[in-house]
Amino acid sequence: MIQKAKKFIILNQEIKPGKGAQLNLEVAHLHTHTPVQVPVIIERAIEDGPVVLLMAGMHGDEINGMEIIRRIIRKGYNKPTIGTIICIPVFNIFGFLNVMRVLPDGRDLNRCFPGTKNGSLASQFAYHFMKEIAPMVDYVIDFHTGSAKRNNMAQIRCVFKDTDSLELARIFNPPFIIHSAYIPKSIREAMHKKGKKILLFEGGKTDSIDDGIVQEGIDGVKRFLTHLEMRNVKENLGSREPIFIKDHKWLRAPNSGMFQPSVKNGDKVEVGTILGIVTDPFGLIEKKVKSTLEGFVFCVNEAPVVNKGDAIFHIGSKMIPREYAEIEPIK
Asked: pLDDT at residue 327 above 80?
């Protein structure tokens, strides 16, 4: 006997089985009193199943994630065979319009969750999301890039002790899986407290579209949806054993000057490996930057000019197999 589909009501509109809709999450008003609306694209299969949210644009200058979701929608990969897929290609509409990381109030939206109804503009964004969207979903993939000129290798960040999320990260199958604790007032922390599973994808840098990173994101989403049996398309998406990074640190510029890296994302380095140089513009100083640990480079600062103390290389040590067994799950 086929079970009758449940009602699925989001943003005050019912999405019937086998149907889709583009709705708007109204979050604030401009000073002209024009409403600011975040487009929300929903596709529901005939058969009930998981509800997955794909979202990008938490920071308005992180374009790669927007392009990943745009291509997913364009190709119809967001139309599931079971369950529901919700896409929010651009969450921080204000930031996107201004091509800026933050909102007009200067706040980082990803440090304002769960938000308040009458708080700052960023807090209002977070509040309406947690009230209208968060309760409806089971899984979230949140797409980001490195900030400023920092270029991230394609990676998934999750808490390793959350073994369910760790397994979902492995299924996404990026080159790197990085242990990252929950940051206070971030969307990851807020969704975790709601009992939702959320993966954070990082790849590329701001103000750019990197086809390699975009393809990594698309392929990862396909693997994720296939695992949840939300897609019945069989295709060879390739496989790899991701590099798991539990311990990692930033290496910082030893002095101010012009910066030239000599390694790239994904490179394995040893203690003493020359990573790049920082020079003055007058030919008097040339300071080598050497690695202080063995591991893999998964983020490189591509700024041509740096100040002393700027983060320039993110390097992590690969976990060895016996360490996997030492991961204690969250109770």
From this structure: no
List, edge to edge, every strand of the sheet that includes 305-306. 286-290, 274-279, 257-261, 305-306
At residue 243, what is the residue type?
I
CB atoms within 10 A of CB 22: 10
Token pair of 187, please? 């969307």
CATH number of 248-321: 2.40.50.100
Domain extent listing, the chain: 13-227, 248-321
Instruction: Say whether pTM exceeds 0.85.
Output: yes
> Is the confidence at residue 325, as pLDDT, over 80?
no
Give strand pairing partners of 86: 42, 53
**Bond from prior residue into 175 cis (ω within 30 degrees of 0):** no
In this structure, what token pair is assigned to residue 4? 């009758």
Fold of 13-227: Aminopeptidase (3.40.630)
Sign of the CA dihedral running 275, 245, 173, 270:
positive
Distance CA 134, CA 33 (A): 26
Closest to 137 in 3D by CA, of 23, 49, 7: 49
